[in-house]
Write a structure and sequence with these properties.
Helix content: 25-40%
Number of domains: 1
CATH topology: Alpha-Beta Plaits
Radius of gyration: 14 Å
Number of helices: 2
Strand order of the largest sheet: 2-3-1-4
Structural class: alpha+beta
CATH class: Alpha Beta
Distance between the termini: 16 Å
Number of strands: 4
Strand content: 25-35%
């Protein structure tokens, strides 16, 4: 079921702002660096120091929280699409 589209003039986010995004994928050596590379394409100010990493209890998955400088809705939408469609990513919140 698709979420209803929120009209642009009714956004609850005030731009620019620091915006955390959680990205989850299988634990693999290149996952964190790959996600940093995707994020930097959409927020050139982002760097790995703005990322928190948390492995799952069994070490199967890695959860990354990336905090970006969100400048507008298009940037956020494009970043969510890029992350959600990436083959290494299982979930984006």
């Amino acid at each position: 079921m698709d979420m209803p589209e929120i009209p642009r003039d009714q956004s609850l986010i005030e731009y620019p702002c620091e915006f955390p995004i959680k990205v989850m994928g299988l634990m693999q050596e290149s996952f964190a660096q790959t996600i940093v590379e995707v994020v930097v394409l959409h927020d050139p100010t982002f760097h790995a120091g703005k990322m928190e990493m948390r492995p799952s209890t069994k070490g199967t998955y890695l959860s990354l929280t990336v905090t970006i400088l969100a400048v507008d809705r298009d940037q956020l939408d494009n970043l969510y699409r890029a992350l959600s469609s990436h083959p290494m990513v299982k979930m984006v919140l």
